[in-house]
Amino acid sequence: MIILDFLQDILTEPAFLIGMISFVGLVAMKSKFHKVLTGTMGPIIGYLMLSAGAGVIVENLSPLADMIEHGFNITGVVPNNEAVVSVAQEILGVETMTILVVGLLFNLLIARFTRFKYVFLTGHHSFFMAALLSAVLGSLDMSGVEIILVGGFLLGAMSAILPALGQKQTLKVTEGEDLAMGHFSSLGYYFSGIIGKLVGKGSKSTEEIEVPEKYAFLRNTTISTALTMVIFYIFAALVAGPEFVSGLSEGKNYLIFAILAGLNFAVGVAIVYAGVRMILSDLIPAFQGIATKVIPNAVPAVDCAVFFTFAPTAVIIGFLMSFLGGIVGMLVLGAVGGVLIIPGMVPHFFTGATAGIYGNATGGRRGAMVGSFVNGLAISFLPALLLPVLGDLGFTNTTFGDTDFATIGIILGQIGNWIGHTGIYTIVGIVALILIIPSFMSDSELAINNPEWEE
């Protein structure tokens, strides 16, 4: 059990995973000791900076959500991945940890021997998916070696297939940088990109928004983020009222608290950007060693926040429009008598921002706005549909907040309930065919959906 706990801590900590990958790549390239040291430490420190910035963002989004819920008198379910996982750990802790380890091994084997050469490096999301798989498969009476092998295979397969699905869009986002999306809300991002292509013809990029000279300071991403969020926080504080906000601010003036929260949010975003730049400067060169020596042509699939620096303006637009979509989704659910899914600030910021980036890459400003709005609807309706499945497992009043978790959970749960283990093994067979068939379609050794793969 101690070994499992140790492995869980290693594998669920993306900083260590990225550091290990960089280390292996640099050693494979026979780099000098000082380059191995700096090339390993750089991505670790960069990811810790990214995590620290994300922590500042989450810390300041929490009171914003409280103010909005109180100000508008909203009660319901707030999707929260961490809450579901904490319950799953109490019920299926060993299964979750073992599926996580086996899933990582399957991901590496799939990347080595198939065209799906994507190595998933976002460890905490792998952990969340392992928890979802153990919960759903456990509810279908799978146990022991069966649940570990089936769950581990599905985790490893999804870790390779989902980054591949949207790789062409991702390359547009990164302007050719050899990165993939390693975040289990990817279906929402890719759909945003599709919507952007449909609605954004002729629309200029969010990053080309013309700013008059007297407002030139708005070109500074940190300043523009701070001003936007301060306005947002002040509005929420005014709606909630000084008496309620004083309980959150520990006696500090409610408007001063709102202003500081908005400014601290911008600080968190700035730290994330700095961490991302540090990760990319060391990880990409080191990963070439993996791609040439260990897993030929491997592509790193990284956290969604890594993509924020490619379109900083789309980040804020995406967050706001996704949140608006969440509000509309909540109202629709209320009107039809469904469970109210209260827009969670954390999923709407991170997934909404990324959906905005993908929508902008394919459809400019209109794509960013419409794509992220639809993402907001998706992370309202899908968690609501998943809630009954998780409720049956004892996870009442909590649900996952990201599109991939909800989609996979709903599919496995429904098919498993209809035709039992036969249905699950049918899914496993279909997934295996998806992984194998591309190997017979081309002699190329490049990753599938790399543009050169089709040539």
TrEMBL record:
Transmembrane region positions? 6-29, 36-58, 91-111, 118-138, 144-165, 223-242, 254-276, 297-321, 327-346, 367-390, 422-441
Looking up Pfam families in the UniProt record yields: EIIC-GAT (PF03611)
Task: State the source organism's domain of life.
Answer: Bacteria
Q: Which UniProt keywords apply?
A: Cell membrane, Membrane, Phosphotransferase system, Sugar transport, Transmembrane, Transmembrane helix, Transport
UniProt topology in membrane: Multi-pass membrane protein
User: Which Gene Ontology BP terms does the record give?
Assistant: phosphoenolpyruvate-dependent sugar phosphotransferase system
PANTHER family from the entry? ASCORBATE-SPECIFIC PTS SYSTEM EIIC COMPONENT
**Tell me, what does this protein do in biology?**
The phosphoenolpyruvate-dependent sugar phosphotransferase system (sugar PTS), a major carbohydrate active transport system, catalyzes the phosphorylation of incoming sugar substrates concomitantly with their translocation across the cell membrane. The enzyme II UlaABC PTS system is involved in ascorbate transport.
Q: How does it assemble?
A: Homodimer.
Q: Which family does it belong to?
A: Belongs to the UlaA family.
What is the recorded name of this protein? Ascorbate-specific PTS system EIIC component
Q: What is the scientific name of the source organism? A: Dolosigranulum savutiense
